[in-house]
Amino acid sequence: MTLRRRSLMATLGLALFYSAVGLSANADPLDVDALREMREGDMRKLVIHDAPMPLGGREFTDPSGANLSLAAYEGQVVLLNFWATWCAPCREEMPDLEALQLEWGGEDFQVVTIATGRNSLPGIKAFFAEVGIEALPILLDPRGQMARASGVLGLPVTVILDREGMEIGRLQGGAHWNTENARAILSEVIANQPDA
After folding, report:
1. Which of 23, 65, 153, 179 is most buried by a 10 A CB count?
2. What phi, psi does 150 have (nearest 5°)?
3. Is the dihedral of CA 13, 14, 18, 21 positive or negative?
4. CB–CB of 161/70 below 8 Å?
5. Which residue intervals define the domain Thioredoxin in the entry (predicted)?
6. pLDDT tens-digit series, residues 117-162
7. Are 94 and 175 in contact (CB under 8 A)?
């Protein structure tokens, strides 16, 4: 093979390589393997899916009983937390979720907490007042329909949703969400989610 032909083949090979990299970057901007490698401590329990998947349940209520939907959060990365007042690990992680919402809540990111099952509104308000929760919403799934449709089998469960409302990761059980490692993972997700 001549030098000119080898040079042409090498150029063509590089062009194909960079085209493939570009196409895969557009199809899946989040590097799930890198995200999995980042997990430490409590975050080791975080299951990162190979590809985004639909979340079964999408509807819940506010304290007045008005129907709401996760569609209201599309365009934002959401940390969706299913919890209950009677669940000790749920109560333990709530201040961490509050800290994330206070610091990061806005156009790009929201922490959405949904009390599922039998939770009295006075009990939720008393708990929030007791531990100083002010930035998290009081949202309800009183019959547990959203939780069941979302595959929640125990509490707490925290789900990371992309900007299109698709599930990209899930953690079963309590976790410290305000640690350096949890923040690094969430930062990576937020930074690598294209604007909707």
Report:
1. 179
2. -90, 5
3. positive
4. yes
5. 24-191
6. 999 999 999 999 999 999 999 999 999 999 999 999 999 999 999 9
7. no
